[in-house]
Amino acid sequence: VSSALERASTVAFVAIEPTAGVYSFTHDQIQEAAYTLVPQEERPAFHWKLCQILWKPVSSKEDVCKLPLIVGQITKCVSEIKAKDDRRKAASILLRAGRKASSSSAFGTALSYLQLAIDLLGKKRWHENYDLCLSLHNLAAEVSYGVGDSVRLDGLTNSVFLYAKNYDDKIPAYSMKILSLGSANKLQEAMDLGLEVLRNVGEPFGR
Questions:
Q1: Residue 84 and residue 128: Cα distance in Å, rounded?
Q2: pLDDT under 70 in the chain at which residues?
């Protein structure tokens, strides 16, 4: 493979990225032409193989550089990610990507990553991957608030209220619920819920 890449670089089909240590096509049309050589039905498996190569342990610097590449492969090979450990790993990577996108205010992108991660964990996600699932739901609720999707936010927070192991784990979801109610001008409901949360954590506050 390395010799083939070197030959391709000599004719300017690909170039090496010094910071990431990976090769990339020098032009989108070259990449598209190469991609057409992969049969449609084989592409998910093709992307899954690339994904497995890319997410092997690397240095933290390389890891940051490779994150967008790995996420790009995951989104194209979901049907091939079947083992529970692989689905958990993919979901963890998507959570990282969701955090990065959210911090850049790319809320739509972040939400797509987080929802895919939740879906990858399957129906037993709360029982098998509690901490990861809680983090995904809390961040997805924040992002939903950022894009003004109150319906999705309600669904995410309701899941947390239903499956959280203790009241402290529900606090971030309650915070987002209160903010959402306030944004919808449901000020009385927001205030009532806030007071209820304070009472439940031992901090009663009179009106």
A1: 9
A2: 1-35, 37-38, 57-64, 205-207
CA atoms within 13 A on the CB side of 63: 9
DSSP lists the bridge partners of residue 22 as 17
pTM of the predicted structure, to 2 decimals: 0.81
Compute the distance between CA of residue 9 and CA of residue 206 in angstroms, rounded to an integer. Answer: 71
Q: What letter represents residue 98's amino acid? A: G
Length of the chain, please? 207
pLDDT (0 to 100) of residue 203: 79
Rounded-to-integer distance, Cα 40 and Cα 46, Å? 10
In 3D space, the residue among 130, 136, 60 whose CA is nearest the CA of residue 95 turns out to be 136
| Kind of pairing between the strands at 22-25 and 14-17 | antiparallel
